[in-house]
Amino acid sequence: MLNMNTNEIIIDKNSSSIQISNKITAIQRKCYNYMLKVAKNEFKKDKNKKIFSVSAEELLVFFGIGDNNYSRLKKELSILNRTQIQYNILGKNKRSKFFGAFTLISAFEYSKGVISYSFPEKIISMILNPKMFGKINLIVIKSLRSRYSIALYELAEDYINVQIPKMSIEKFRELMGIEEHQYYKFGMFKKYVIDVAVNEINDRENISFTITYELEKKGQKITHIKFTTHKKEEVLQLKDRQKKFYGWKKEIVDKYKNQTICNNLTEIGYLKWTFFYINQDGFLGKIINDSRTILDKEEALKVWEYLYQNPSKMTIEPLSQYDILMKDFKDRKVEQVTTTVFGDKTVITSKFIDFKIDRDKDSEMFDYFFIKIQREDDSIIWSKNSFSFDDIVVMNFV
C-alpha cells in the first residue's frame, strides 16, 4: 500500500501516456495512475514482472469511491480494460515508436479483495521505465474533481520546465476526450471544459503553478489555444516547509514508536496529565487515566505541528502534588460523620472542586493545600485550614 501519510506521492509518468485521448472518467484516470504507481514500485524490484497487484480497498478509500463499492470499482476497471486510448498525441516523445491505440490495462482479475492486473505487452517497458516523463503528484490528482482538470494538470506537469506547445482546438479537444457532438459550440466548450479545468487547478493550494491561456483566431473562428504556467512562490515555500515537517515527523515516529513522548501540552488545550504516545503503526494517541485513544487526523496534525514548532515540549514532565490532586481528587466526594450528645449520627457529604497551595507553609517534603468545597446545599467555600498532600489522599472518600 502506498504511504498516505504525506503531502505528495510522485509518479514519473511517461509523456506519451500523459498525452492521451482522455476518453475516461476522473475516477478511471485516478485509478489508472494509482495502479501505475504501484506497478512501477514492483517493477523496480523485479524487471521481469508483468502481473501486478493492489488491494481493492485501498483504491476505494484513496479515491473516495466508498470503501464497500466493489461493484463500481469492477465496472470502472472493466471500462479501462476495453477502452482504446491514443498515445503521444502532441508528439512530445519524438523517439517513441508507439503511435496508435491501446487499452490502459490489458487484463485484470479480482480475487479475495486483491486486484491483479497487467499492461499491454507492446507498451509495458515504455510506461514502467520511461525515458521522457512528467512528475505527477497523486495527492493532487486525488483532490481534482473534473477529468478535464486532471488531464490539463498532467499536461502542465509534463511541460513544467518548458513551454506548453500551442495546440489546435481540435487537438486539445482530443486531449480532453471530447467527442464531435459534445460542446460543439466554442462558448460551451470554453465554459464547461477549458474554464472548469483552469479554475480548479488555480484554486488548488497544493499545485505549484497557476495556468492562463490565450486564444488564437482565424477570421471569426477560434482555431488555436496556448497555455502558460506560472510558478507560485508561496506554494513552493509551503512545499519546502511541508517536506521539512514530514521529514521531522517521520524521524520522531521511527525513533519513538511504541513509546510515550510527552505530556503538559496545556497551551493547546490539554490537561497536564494527558500523555501522548506513538503506537506500533506510527499513529499518535493520548492517554487519559490509563485509557488510550488514537487521535483523529485533524487533532493529530494539531499536536504534531505544535511539537514541531516547540520541540522543547516533547518531554515527560513529572506531575506535581497539585497536578495529582487535580487529576485524581478533583470532583471526589468525602463524608464527614458527626455524633450528637444523644448518640445520633449525621453524615455530611462535600465535593472537592479545586485546590490552592498554602504559601504561608513551607515544607521540603510536600505542600499544604486549601480545599475548595461544594457543600450539599450547593454553596461553595474554601477550607479555613490547609492540609498536607498526605492528609488529603487518605481522607474518607465516597
Question: What are the salient characteristics of this protein?
Answer:
Arc Repressor Mutant, subunit A; 4-stranded antiparallel sheet; single chain; 398 residues; 26% strand; 5-stranded antiparallel sheet; 19 strands; alpha+beta; 4 domains; elongated; 13 helices
Commentary on this structure:
- With 398 residues, this protein is of the alpha+beta class.
- It folds into four domains: 1-141, Arc Repressor Mutant, subunit A (Orthogonal Bundle); 144-231, Orthogonal Bundle (Arc Repressor Mutant, subunit A); 235-318, no CATH class; 322-393.
- The chain contains 13 helices and 19 strands.
- Strands 15, 16, 17, 18 and 19 form a five-stranded antiparallel β-sheet that branches. The chain has a four-stranded antiparallel β-sheet with strand order 11-12-13-14, with no helix packed on it. The protein has a three-stranded antiparallel β-sheet with strand order 2-6-5.
- The model has no long low-confidence stretch (mean pLDDT 85).
Number of domain units: 4
The CATH first-level class of the largest domain comes to Mainly Alpha
- Give me the count of strands: 19
- State the CATH topology of the largest domain: Arc Repressor Mutant, subunit A
Radius of gyration: 32 Å
List the helices and strands and how they pair.
Blueprint: E1 10-14, H1 15-18, H2 26-45, E2 52-55, H3 56-62, H4 70-82, E3 84-86, E4 101-103, E5 107-111, E6 114-118, H5 124-128, E7 133-137, H6 138-143, H7 147-158, E8 167-168, H8 169-176, H9 186-203, E9 209-218, E10 221-231, H10 233-256, E11 259-262, E12 275-278, E13 284-288, E14 291-294, H11 297-309, H12 321-328, E15 333-339, E16 345-357, E17 368-374, E18 380-382, E19 387-388, H13 389-393
Antiparallel strand pairs: 1-7, 2-6, 3-4, 5-6, 8-10, 9-10, 11-12, 12-13, 13-14, 15-16, 16-17, 17-18, 17-19
Helix pairs in contact: 2-4, 7-9
